[in-house]
Design a protein that fits this description.
By secondary structure, the chain is of the alpha/beta class. It folds into two domains: 120 residues, Periplasmic binding protein-like II (D-Maltodextrin-Binding Protein, domain 2, 3-Layer(aba) Sandwich), CATH 3.40.190.10; 84 residues, Periplasmic binding protein-like II (D-Maltodextrin-Binding Protein, domain 2, 3-Layer(aba) Sandwich), CATH 3.40.190.10. It is built from nine helices and 13 strands. Helix 5 links the parallel strand 9 and strand 10.
Length: 263
């Protein structure tokens, strides 16, 4: 009888041990195991730290739209967020060298970059956008720009786009110079990056507005190490959930006064 009891207790201990291992495995997965993170339980993501309001340093601390998006992604994956900076010129090399787990730094997914890293679905859309003065209700689309004066950055791809729409194109040393002239009525329109224009409107108080669709589309995405499909899938799920429950829009409106995922 005693022998039978010992066998029964031993069997129970084996079962409990197995259950414990299973629960431990689930807990480990929740903390980021099997995602090939360089530090277990932490999602380290990189950016230049020099691109306000997307990512920049304030009082010595990284902040901005990219930082908040990355922090929320980490939270939903079940790990700690660790935003870091790296020079933009070598940011992909840093990812490949496993200095960090991802790049959440306003990187456009391009075919050339896709040869070196894997990209998630976009977490915001940008591209060439037409801006006009707030009070201009005559220019509503690119078709209305024929014969109109358009400002662009000198030697930019936007200049080529502008020349296809009008023969009156003026080059500027910076976007801000062109947008300021637009507000003052010295130009009919400006073609620049959507986020640059929106930021100038919000941060500098310029009385301008975007019109029409994007002339081209930049899909700004999270980059992860090539082949790390598990992490990419987790990030995609987090981004989808953020958009569905309104968290994404809340973060976007905090920094841009609009949802920058919308075209």
């Amino acid at each position: 009888m005693r022998k039978l009891m010992i066998i029964a207790v031993s069997a129970l201990l084996v079962i409990l041990s197995a259950c414990g291992t299973k629960e431990s495995s689930k807990a480990g997965q929740a903390k980021g195991e099997n995602l090939h993170l360089i530090k277990e339980g932490t999602l380290s993501f990189a950016m230049s730290g020099q691109y306000p309001p997307l990512n920049f340093k304030k009082d010595g601390k990284l902040t901005g739209f990219d930082v908040e998006i990355g922090t929320e992604i980490a939270k939903r994956i079940g790990v700690k967020a660790n935003p870091v900076t790296n020079q933009w010129e070598t940011i992909i090399q840093g990812l490949k060298a496993k200095k960090y787990d991802a790049i959440i730094g306003s990187m456009t997914a391009t075919p050339e970059r896709d040869k070196q890293v894997d990209f998630t679905e976009p977490y915001y859309l940008s591209g060439a956008q037409i801006f006009v003065a707030d009070g201009n209700n005559k220019i509503l689309s690119k078709e209305d720009l024929k014969g109109k004066s358009i400002g662009v950055i000198q030697a930019s791809t936007w200049k080529d786009m502008a020349l296809e729409l009008s023969d009156k194109v003026k080059g500027y040393p910076s976007d801000v110079n062109a947008l300021q002239d637009l507000e003052l009525g010295r130009l009919d329109a400006v073609i620049t990056d959507k986020i640059v224009g929106v930021s100038a409107k919000n941060d500098k108080g310029l009385k301008i507005k975007a019109i029409g669709d994007l002339l081209n589309e930049d899909r700004v995405s999270v980059a992860v190490s090539e082949g790390n499909k598990e992490l990419a899938e987790k990030i995609n799920k987090a981004l989808a959930d953020m958009q569905e429950d309104g968290t994404y829009e809340k973060i976007s409106k905090k920094w841009f006064n609009e949802n920058i995922m919308e075209k």
